[in-house]
Design brief:
By secondary structure, this protein is of the alpha/beta class. It has one domain: Rossmann fold. The chain is about 30% helix and about 25% strand. The chain is built from seven helices and eleven strands. The strands form two sheets. Strands 3, 6, 7, 8, 9, 10 and 11 form a seven-stranded mixed beta sheet that branches. A four-stranded antiparallel beta sheet has the order 2-1-4-5, covered by helices on one side. Helix 6 links the parallel strand 7 and strand 8. Helix 4 packs across helix 5. The structure holds adenosine-5'-triphosphate (ATP) and magnesium ion. Adenosine-5'-triphosphate binds next to helix 1.
Length: about 250
């Protein structure tokens, strides 16, 4: 199985004013780094989980893997591209066409309805208005939210908002989905539905997933689990080829 994302020796620190770009660790001190030499592979068509305490760097690592933050040192290979050699425009195209990102804080657009949020990126990847609407409705139905299609985000519960964020990532039919604690606001039954959607995409369409999570149920579906502590990865824990939780 080839790797869809490879991370080699990645170091990252936030700027002193909280900005991105990874130029904070001028002194080269370990303390200023949030990621301290990360090596990690995401095999194509697999589910990989990042687990670890709050503040250990899970979101930061996902942002680096999702081409949203540039490492201070080290290399990220995404889909065969050495990310450090790409222009901003090339990165944007990769993010748009190959990646779906489910953010920990969702980032839904408050003035757009559920269906408009879900279809937001689709015209940019070449779908017509009609195709975008159909695709959005298809994924909203998969996450159990079709009847909420015309609501605004503020009219939804936290778990419903989280599912809109998931639907928006799925709608692009990307090769890779990076999801930051995607089941954190969901009850067990709803979480089961979402995990089943992910699992089907992995099995039938070879989609690759990276999750950060505290959810042991979601972890049980991963082929590889990477414990992250204070910006460093411990040895990965490998599970069965279909994930420990697959029934
Ligand atoms: N924008 C930022 N500017 C400065 N420091 C940041 C920023 N985002 C995160 N950090 C710091 O980086 C470290 C890692 O944060 P990160 O959000 O990656 O952790 P996490 O493992 O995702 O935690 P959680 O489980 O709470 O989501 C923390 O010490 C945090 O305070
Ligand atoms: Mg986080």
């Amino acid at each position: 199985m080839s790797a869809v994302i490879t991370v080699h020796g990645v170091e990252f620190g936030y700027g002193s004013n909280g900005g991105s770009g990874g130029f904070a660790a001028e002194a080269g001190s370990d303390q200023e780094l949030v990621l301290k030499g990360i090596d990690l592979e995401v095999p194509r068509g697999s589910m990989v989980c990042l687990v670890g305490p709050s503040g250990s760097g899970k979101t930061t690592l996902l942002n680096v893997m999702g081409l949203l933050e540039k490492p201070l040192r080290g290399q990220v290979i995404f889909d065969g591209h050495d990310v450090g050699r790409l222009s901003e425009r090339e990165l944007e195209v990769l993010r748009l066409k190959r990646l779906g990102f489910v953010f920990q804080s969702f980032f839904l657009l408050p003035t757009l309805s559920v269906v408009e949020n879900t279809s937001y990126f689709l015209p940019s990847i070449g779908l017509s208005r009609g195709e975008s609407k159909d695709r959005a409705e298809e994924v909203l139905s998969q996450v159990g939210l079709l009847q909420f299609r015309d609501k605004l985000p503020r009219e939804l519960s936290g778990g419903q908002r989280q599912r809109v964020a998931i639907a928006r990532a799925l709608a692009k039919k990307p090769a890779v989905i990076l999801a930051d604690e995607p089941t954190a606001n969901l009850d067990r039954k709803t979480s089961d539905t979402i995990v089943a959607v992910f699992q089907e995409l992995r099995e039938k369409q070879n989609v690759s997933f990276v999750f950060s999570t505290h959810d042991t149920h979601l972890v049980s579906y991963a082929q590889v689990v990477h414990p992250l502590e204070n910006g460093k990865l411990a040895a990965p824990v490998k599970q069965s080829p279909n994930g420990g939780g697959a029934k």
